[in-house]
Amino acid sequence: MWKSYGGSCSRVRASPSRIRTSRRVPGDVIATIADAVERIDRIDNFTLMYNLGMGKVLMRCPQNEAKFEVYVAMPFTKGVTERSSGRTLLILGSNLHHIDAMEGQFEGAWKKRELQEIQKSYGNTIRWINIGSLSEGFIGLDFNRGASQTEGVATSMEDITFLARTLQEFGYDKNKRLFILKPPYVVESEEGRNLRGRGYHTLADYAKGVEGGIT
To answer: Residue range 67-88: average pLDDT?
Structure first.
């Protein structure tokens, strides 16, 4: 979806081959690393910087908002978090799309082809991206109040608050910026601009919840 190119992680291993991961790996925080799934203790800067060495960084793109170019060349990492449980997957050193990395790891996550169309279900999860480190850069989260629970996006203020709290528990700095985006490009949504105008900028801001919800 996102237009990009490109504990500890002591067991990081790279492989040029495409491995279909279906065996569920236990753990609250896991990572697809070069298409193999590993359990990690927590999210740290070493983990996020892995993609920098692989050349997976945010780059200039005409469809992205120019204001995000300040983050160009920072590491670009995809993530997904399950509602309620908080189980979180990072995609490191891999070109896998969210759904391909999720299959077998989250209940209700699947992809299949029907005639000429590909059908997808992301289960009860929320997809997000990380630009930069635990404190620098930003978290990008797609929001669509009209989406179904299986489309992999935040659909309510409760979803955003839950994700903000979960990411802090896993090691993210409370002052890390959170932008509400509308993919497939890095473009801030109208809801996101409205919330920033009301003083919501960081994970800590959103973790407190938003009085009155999103308007």
So the answer is: 96
CB 176 within 8 A of CB 139: yes
Both ends of the chain: CA-CA distance in Å? 26
For residue 137, the SS3 value is: coil
pLDDT at residue 215 tops 80 = no
**What is the spatial distance between Cα 158 and Cα 139, in angstroms, rounded to a whole number?**
17
Q: Is pTM, for the whole model, over 0.90?
A: no
CA distance 176 to 170: 13
- Find all residues with CB under 8 Å of 138, minimum gap 6, and list them: 71, 130, 131, 132, 176, 177, 178, 179
H helix count then E strand count, the chain:
5, 9
Torsion of CA 8, 141, 160, 169, to 10 degrees: 10
> Which residue do the tokens 């500890």 mark?
8
Q: Report the SS3 class of residue 162.
A: helix
In the chain, alpha helices (H):
45-53, 98-102, 157-169, 190-197, 203-207
The answer to whether residues 21 and 94 touch, using CB atoms and an 8 Å cutoff, is no
pLDDT tier for residue 4 given thresholds of 50, 70 and 90: very low
3-state helix, strand, coil in the chain (%, to 5): 20, 25, 50
The order of strands in the sheet holding 88-92 is 36-39, 29-33, 88-92, 76-82, 125-131, 138-142, 177-181
